[in-house]
Amino acid sequence: HFVNCYGQCEYGWLVYAELGPFVNSVFDIHGGALNLKNYLAVNTTAGNSEFVDCKFTEYFMFTTGPLITTFGGPGTLSFTSCELSVSNALTNQPLFFPNGTSVHYHGVIKLGDAASAGTYNLSALTSLTGDVFVKGTLSSVTGPTTGAYRIISAYDKGIQHVGNIYAKIGIKEGNGTNITAASTINIPQDGSFFSVMGTTAVSKINVGSWDEGRTITLRANDGFTLTNSYANNLILASTFNMAANNTITLRCSAGKWWEVCRCANALT
Known about the structure:
The protein is mainly beta. Helices cover 0% and strands 47% of the residues. The protein has strands at 2-7, 13-18, 22-23, 26-31, 38-43, 49-52, 55-61, 68-70, 77-89, 96-97, 103-111, 127-134, 147-153, 158-163, 179-180, 184-185, 193-197, 204-205, 215-220, 224-226, 234-235, 240-242, 247-253, 256-263.
């Protein structure tokens, strides 16, 4: 265990590891060198390497390269039931650089409020399973397409589910940001009930990476037309000429928005 340690390593790696497995180890180290190459470098050329039930903590990410890197194949790198925490990232570097080999992460990742766009990019991982906690926005995080993980944002106060275990669902329930009526609109990530302002006809609703499996309700504030169009992602019972306070509920599936129900509400 390395607990509450400070590491000064110019132009090198703070921790070097090969083979393994490393079980129930703690790497609580602050790498303070301005020219630190990587926090953890794993030699996977000699075979597979695995960290099991390990905890990695970096308070300020100074590295000039990715936080964790490998030396390439033929071996693979796996993290099983691990926790990785980065309080602040002072460089625009990703957390992982597989360097041509497979890197699988299972566990928890915690990214602080000063983490840069590069640090939020987890797409280099071969697979990701578990929870990713961020203080940035949900849309700032890029994850791999393989695995089953949740992105949990303190900023958005919401959850984005990705993968086979968790269906992609609405970010959170409740009133979301108002939408301005236009021929093509996007659904914000901050709710499930949205008021559409203005009278411009809407003929297309874009499908974001967070929308698959999501259910939303649109309310007409002034009255607008929602056009039934398979080519434009809208599968409706029919084109809906919405008067003020009319609502329509849609569910996103297979890259399309499908009508669930509509209601011609009238305030009296």
